[in-house]
Amino acid sequence: MVSIKQAAMKVLTKNTDYAIRALLALASKTGSYVSAKSIATEHDIPYQFLRRLLQEMIRHNLIVSKEGVQGGFMMQKDPDEITVTELIEIFQGKVQVSECMFRKQICGNRARCVLRHEIMRIEQVVQSEFEKVTIGKLLRDLEAANPVKLSSTPITHN
Amino acid sequence: MVSIKQAAMKVLTKNTDYAIRALLALASKTGSYVSAKSIATEHDIPYQFLRRLLQEMIRHNLIVSKEGVQGGFMMQKDPDEITVTELIEIFQGKVQVSECMFRKQICGNRARCVLRHEIMRIEQVVQSEFEKVTIGKLLRDLEAANPVKLSSTPITHN
DNA sequence: TATAACTGATACTATATTGGTATCAATTAA
DNA sequence: TTAATTGATACCAATATAGTATCAGTTATA
After folding, report:
1. A153 lies in a domain?
2. In which domain, by residue range, is B140 found?
3. CA R_g for chain B
4. What is the pLDDT of residues B79-112, one digit of tens each?
5. Could you tell me the pLDDT band of residue B143, with boundaries at 50, 70 and 90?
6. Is residue B7 part of a domain?
7. CA distances, B24 to each of A157, B64, B142 (Å)
8. Has residue B73 been placed in a domain?
9. Strand D surroundings (CB within 7 A)
C-alpha cells in the first residue's frame, strides 16, 4: 500500500522566493549598486542561481545593472509597483488551474468545464490577494518588525 | 537570452483533475458499482492511471470497491462532504507556500518570514475558497448545465 | 596599463515530480 | 471454468526544480 501523495503543493518555488529576497535587498538600498555576491552572501542564496534570477529581472525592467568593479544591481521599478503576482508570473509562469483552460479546442469532458468555472473564480481570488502584496509593502513590514536595518544576522523564530 | 520562465504554475495536477472527474462519474450513479474501465473510456482518463487514483480514494474512504465480474467502484462518502481541498491534499499534498513554513528550525532570513506572514494569510483564503467547492456542488452544477444525463458524447466549447 | 571585481551569457548536472504503462495475483458472476 | 474485474506494485519517460561551472566582456583603481 504505497501512497501516491506528494510532499506538498508549493505555491512559491525557490526562484520566486529568492527573487523576492533579492528585491528586498535592493529596495533597502535604492540609489546604489549592490553586487550579486553580497546579496548571495548576506541572504544565503546560491550565487550562480541568483545571477540568473537577476538577469531575468533586468529583462523585465524591474532592476538595472552596472558592469565592472563597483558594479552591481539597483532597483529600477517602484517597489510598490512590483507585486508577488508579477514575480510568480515571471518565475513560475501564469497561474493556471488545469491544462484545459487556455486551450481553445475541443474538450471531450464537460465535467472538467464545470470545474473550470469554479476554479477560474478561485484563480481570480488568488491573484487579487497576491496583487496586494508588493515589494514595497514587504519592505515596510520588514522594517517595522526590525527597526534598525536589514540585518544579515540569523535570527531564531517559530 | 534564454528565459527561465516555466510554462505555468499549475493549481490542479492530472491526479486531482482525473480524481474529480471519476468522483463525478460515481456520484452520478450512486448505489451501483461502476468499473474503472467504463470510467476511463467515458471520461478519457488513462486506465491504469485511473486505477491508482481509485485505490488511493478507497484508502481515504471516499469510495468502496467490489472485485470480480460486475465489480467496480461506488461512492461511500457524501459527495457534499468531499471538498476540492481534500482532493488536493490527497493527490498533491498540503498546500504550502515555501519550504520554510513547516520547518520549526532556525531560519537565517527574516525577509522570508515577513513574506511568510502574508502568504499564510493568502493560503487561508485559497483553502477556504476550495472548501466551498464539493463534488456534490459540482455534480448539481453539471446537471443544471446539462439536464439530461452525464453524457459521454464530446461537446465543443470555447 | 594591468588586474581584480564585476556582469552577460549559456551550457551542464542531479534530483524530484508528473504522467503514464505493464504485469501478475486474487476474486467473483455467469 | 472462464472472462471480467480489482489489488498491488514495479517500471518508464518527460518535464520541472535546484544548483554549478565556465568563459567572455566591462570598468574602477592601484
Report:
1. no
2. 14-94+134-145
3. 19
4. 999 999 999 999 988 766 655 443 333 344 555 5
5. confident
6. no
7. 44, 15, 9
8. yes
9. A 1-2, 10, 13-15, 18, 46-49, 51-52, 66-71, 92; B 6-7, 9, 35-37, 48, 51-52, 54-55, 58, 65-73
